[in-house]
Write a structure and sequence with these properties.
The protein contains 14 helices and 14 strands.
């Protein structure tokens, strides 16, 4: 895909250097310390090994050990800030927006992994972070989480950290609010309901963008998912609601809504986004598989191919970077195609470089053919 032949998005980004620093965004509510791990396939020496590249190989090794036992060696690649919220917020901050972050970044003191992040954003920490071992393969990843501290994220804890008047002011001044990781936060839906009754009715002026990412709801039952979808739909009265999904999440949500699962082709996924939009009656639905992304809003439905690479430096956080880039496009007034292009470029840069792109990084990346962007 040659983005150099599509000048609108780079041109829009060229003028964003002055606009984005004026945009305030509010993001929450999780927070994790992520350790990225590779699995050893064969250990050749104390310093040399071959990596297990495919998830199926790992599964086969586990299957063969059923009823017996097995030993797996994991090699840490990096330890970094994690959680859907901090990763998305960090990417938004890298584009120059003014970020306020509410979540579990450490208590009573900020965990050191978030020190740089907290210096660049306005943070309100609710509790200790969770911890995730992210076991990465070339074709996917396993997220092994320790979530005990997430049960401390409640409306009462939130209001102690940021009183209602201050919270309402943060909502009021923000062009985008992103509330992510409903699946792992047991009391998140209660927070949603309180925002709907205590904060949203007090807002004035134009509707703000409101982004939701449920974050792999497979472990939640259908009744819970159906209920939260109805709650999210209620936000459309006060906000311009975006629901972000990866391909598997879109199938899970579709099943709850009574929709047939899409295949993994662009036409099927694009149509699926439109059907979810019709069911929920919100502003935008966006679905991001690994090779492309699709979205639907009142203007219609479309897709954009992505800069897929078979050998990423990192995959944990790729979806959160897509979400950040897509929301940047929405903040800038881009159409669906433009927003999708910024989304896939943001993710594409991140998986290649293992860092969030700056505005200049994104402009350069968008100006190249994808195959030359590695």
């Amino acid at each position: 895909m040659n983005l150099a032949g599509m000048p609108s998005t780079p041109a829009e980004l060229a003028s964003a250097g002055e606009a984005l620093p004026k945009q305030r965004v509010l993001v929450g509510l999780d927070g994790f310390v992520d350790t990225i791990l590779h699995v050893v396939d064969k250990r050749e020496s104390a310093t040399k090994y071959t990596r297990m590249l495919k998830m199926a190989s790992f599964a086969d090794r586990i299957r063969a050990a059923a009823g017996l036992s097995a030993n797996f060696e994991f090699v840490p690649q990096m330890t970094k800030l994690g959680g859907n919220g901090p990763i998305m917020a960090n990417a938004l901050a890298s584009y120059g927006t003014q970020v306020t972050y509410i979540g579990n970044l450490g208590a009573p003191n900020i965990h050191p992994i978030f020190n740089d992040f907290s210096r660049g954003t306005n943070v309100c920490s609710l509790a200790e972070p969770g911890y995730t071992d992210a076991i990465e393969f070339e074709d996917g990843k396993l997220m092994c989480g320790k979530h005990a501290s997430l049960k401390e994220i409640t409306w009462e804890t939130l209001i102690r950290c940021m009183p209602l008047e201050q919270l309402t002011a943060r909502f009021s001044e923000s062009s985008l609010i992103a509330l992510v990781n409903w699946t792992m936060i047991p009391y998140m839906e209660g927070i949603f309901r309180k925002i709907l009754t205590e904060v949203a009715p007090r807002l004035t002026g134009q509707k703000r963008w409101m982004f939701f990412d449920l974050a792999d709801p497979a472990k939640r039952n259908r009744e819970d998912i159906a209920r939260v979808l109805k709650t999210i739909a209620k936000f459309q009265k006060y906000f311009r609601v975006i629901l972000g999904l990866n391909l598997q999440e879109s199938r899970q949500i579709g099943a709850v809504l009574g929709l047939k699962p899409p295949n993994d082709k662009t036409a099927g996924v694009t149509a699926h986004a439109a059907r979810i939009l019709e069911k929920l009656k919100i502003e935008t639905v966006v679905i991001h598989p690994t090779h492309f992304a699709a979205a639907a809003d009142a203007s219609g439905a479309t897709h954009e191919d992505g800069p897929f690479t078979p050998a990423p430096k990192i995959t944990t956080g790729a979806g959160d970077h897509f979400n950040a880039g897509f929301c940047i496009g929405r903040l800038m007034g881009c159409d669906l195609s433009g927003s999708l292009r910024i989304g896939v470029a943001t993710s594409g840069f991140y998986v290649r470089q293992a860092r969030s792109p700056s505005l200049e990084d994104a402009k350069r990346f968008l100006g190249k053919r994808w195959e030359k962007a590695a």
